[in-house]
Amino acid sequence: MKKRRLFSALLVLWLVAGCTGCLGESPEDSGTAPAQPLTLKVLYATVEAGSEAVVHAARHYTRETGVNVQISTFPYNSLQEKVFTELSRMSGEYDLIAVDTPWVPKIIRHLEPLTPYLRNAASAGDIGDFIAKLFLDTSVFDKDRPHRAPIAMDTIDLDRIASAGFDVWSLPIQSNVLTVSYRKDLFQNEAYRAEFRQQFHRELDLPNTLDEYLDIARFFTRDTNRDGLIDLYGTTLMAGKHEANFVDYKSFLSNFGGELFDEKLRPAFHSEAGVKALETYGKWILAEKVTPPDVLSYSWDEVEIAFGYGQAVMGMNYHDMKLQPNVGGQVGYFMFPGVERGGALVRGPHFGSWGLAVNKYSRHKAEAFELADYLTSAEVQRDYLRFRQHVTRKSAYAAAGALPDESLREYYDVLGRSLNVGVGRPRIRNYDQVSEAVQTAVQQYLTGKKSARAALNAAAAKVEQSMRDNGYLSPNE
What we know:
This is ABC transporter substrate-binding protein. The protein folds into 2 domains: 11-176 and 352-419, Periplasmic binding protein-like II (D-Maltodextrin-Binding Protein, domain 2), CATH 3.40.190; 179-346, Periplasmic binding protein-like II (D-Maltodextrin-Binding Protein, domain 2). The protein is built from 19 helices and 14 strands. It has helices spanning 27-30, 51-65, 76-88, 104-107, 115-120, 132-139, 158-163, 184-187, 190-200, 210-220, 243-255, 272-286, 300-308, 365-375, 378-384, 394-400, 406-419, 431-446, 452-469, and strands at 11-15, 39-45, 68-74, 96-100, 140-141, 167-168, 171-177, 179-183, 233-235, 312-317, 331-335, 339-341, 344-346, 351-358. It has a 6-stranded mixed β-sheet, sandwiched between helices. Strands 9-10-8-11 form a 4-stranded mixed β-sheet. Helix 11 packs across helix 12, helix 15 (378-384) runs parallel beside helix 16 and helix 18 runs antiparallel to helix 19 (452-469).
């Protein structure tokens, strides 16, 4: 999950090692043809998976090893189509493939299990440096039952993974989780702070709960130039009919203790918790009006634009957001707020990650694993920080604490803590159909076509049929 910016160009980068035969005997002198350097071909995403950082690291790998690395990058939808096409025809054209987590159930039989490689790798002792929750969600699957959730653990243990019937199918390289960017300059403004204190009888601090967040969103929604029109809104949401609206709703659902499916893979999002989550989400837009008026068309791209141009004081997204130069101000970050349940604060931000998987049909599987191991290594990930890459190792987040940029230090702190409480996506082949059904329900409610309960009930019926069609539920369930 990445961000998916409006980026459609195909970038093909050839990373070529130094000249062959520049030193030592020439082919004519030796009587033998020079050995051709190994070339590894990689299918990768664009900015949504930090392509700039990965390309830079691959160049360094070529200089260190002499292995040529060819990286072809595609925007999300094009990459998904390319990956599925290549694997469906059992092509070994690409050795290493960037895989988004929801794709794994569909393509797992075309991937090479990495557990044996990890056991034999010199870096095997470093596997515990990955954020465990992230690694388990991204990389650990049961090939025969990919929908199974992996066993929970605080530190990655290959023996426990294998003994429970799972394997490792990728190495996490880019992580995404819902966080909040906010106007730190406005939060710290003394006039606003005094006004907020008088109105709410507490300090204008970072919100921990959705209720606190709503209070702040209400407070900042105002007519700043006194022309009779609201020109500053408290927050953004991603309410357009889009994958972004599904994961927005999913985050609210998790906060209220709801789930998309029960333990038997029957839809459960139409529960009381699910209805409350959707009604709360809709209330912010329809009743409280703390979001921009065109929010029903927003995905992650429009959220970035609205926040960047100073239209909103707080903005939820899957990356750090910046203000346009003419806006001025300072950006800070905090975790997606939660809900107090049973005396505890529960947060459920949606998260997901990209993994590097080895193509089962590659003729250079061992070498492809070595490249993946390098690109996700602790040392390389620390270097990724200068590219603002969403790293996946604990040591990289620790290193981010020493960055000179205060805003960036703050973002990495929030990102790392959020990944430890994030809630991943269902591990099902028909993920797209489930997302589409929930997107439709959210839009039907927000546009007044159905009540929250009726919209979710209709979506649940569609999802239940889809789960039967895909063999997850028997006809009688």
